[in-house]
Amino acid sequence: MMQKTRTRFAPSPTGFIHLGNIRSALYPWAFARATGGDFILRIEDTDLERSTQAAVDVIIEGMRWLGLDYDEGPFYQMQRMDRYKAVLADLHAAGHVYPCYMSVAELDALRERQMAAKEKPRYDGTWRPAPGKTLPPVPAGVQPVLRFKNPQGGSVVWDDKVKGRIEISNDELDDLVIARPDGTPTYNFCVVVDDMDMAITHVIRGDDHVNNTPRQINIFRALGKEPPVYAHLPTVLNEQGEKMSKRNGAKPVTQYAEEGYLPDAMVNYLARLGWSHGDDEIFSRAQFLQWFNLDHLGKSAAQFDEAKLRWVNAQHLKAMADDALAPLVAAVLRKRGITADDRLPLICALFKDRCDTTVALADWAAAFYANITPKPEEKAQHVTEAIKPALALLAEKLGACAWDKVSIAAAIKEVLAAQGLRMPQLAMPVRVLVMGTAQTPSLDAVLALCTREVVISRLNAI
């Protein structure tokens, strides 16, 4: 019987989560959903000085917005300290852990000597017990760290689902500190206990963790457990080619919601930052989950491109049902103090092909519900003294006709014929007065979605 897939996302809440981080949630979520498995959220909050509740809130809010639902959690490492200490005691009893009394000053001096000799700086095993070895005298009043007795000789080997076979000599690994002087366990140890207790089958994470993996595998084996399958994802770079980070201008994931991006478009775009399905650029969430596996993860760093993201969002916006799009636009309008009505789905249908975000679509929709101010340069260009009689006549015709697209089109044609004008000569000033800009979709369709009273009052405001 095959083991059920169990994946996890384990962010540290030490800064607001950005797109580079959240991609490390998308792939394990997708793999769990694609294989009928479980996805677990774990908050690695042991860095007490830098961890904040605000950062935790952004993680959870960002995942909720993107629809990255989790089956278990969130689990918090700080709430699991008793469990870590119990496992640590078991390892100690089994002889896999030893106390080390080397001070920070001694360790720094050791590293300086090694670097001067052009050697790799590493702990030299001074306090590691061995048959026939005499350890230094235990210094008085010093609380030791606990170090993991890394295997000597041989190699740590794993088949990474992204990077292929990786082999690290155990002699390259020194004895890792797994508990601080106050007894609190360190990151690499806590991660192993968590992955073991939560029965994680696949660890899909950024390749900045590759150096931790051989250490974690050795701890797994010391605990008598086989490690999970690993897949280390290449870095996401920003538009300048630097690693995406808050320091380099990356935005919190939640800001994209504020800027009018669609969750499914974000999932589509993020999925393509390191994974592909042939040449498919635009796909639904359902298609993504149907196609996703670990075999098509990219090996090269992916570069974020906001213009490409906006294009992907525009494609999803165009494809979205108007009734589904309208509530999203209504929410943007509400933040501006504007209340929409049942015309909004039709407004969305008319303007969505021109927009790349729901904020841009709300900009158009606002003209139907709130006062507009024509752009002065467009008003000066198009609303001339020569055209004003035609505008007055159109206001008169529109006051008397039925209020639908066909009747409005007929009224416009009557004014064109009576005034000897071509369509652009009349349409441009009407658009400027009614919508605030000279560029809109078909004039009769736009006017039909306005109320008669609004159109006539704006035409008369010349």
TrEMBL record:
NCBIfam families the UniProt entry points to: gltX_bact
EC numbers, comma separated: 6.1.1.17
Subcellular location: Cytoplasm
A GO term from the CC aspect: cytosol
Pfam families the record matches: Anticodon_2 (PF19269), tRNA-synt_1c (PF00749)
Gene Ontology BP terms: glutamyl-tRNA aminoacylation
Organism expressing this protein natively: Rhodoferax sediminis
Family: Belongs to the class-I aminoacyl-tRNA synthetase family. Glutamate--tRNA ligase type 1 subfamily.
Catalyzed reactions: tRNA(Glu) + L-glutamate + ATP = L-glutamyl-tRNA(Glu) + AMP + diphosphate
Function: Catalyzes the attachment of glutamate to tRNA(Glu) in a two-step reaction: glutamate is first activated by ATP to form Glu-AMP and then transferred to the acceptor end of tRNA(Glu).
Protein known as: Glutamate--tRNA ligase
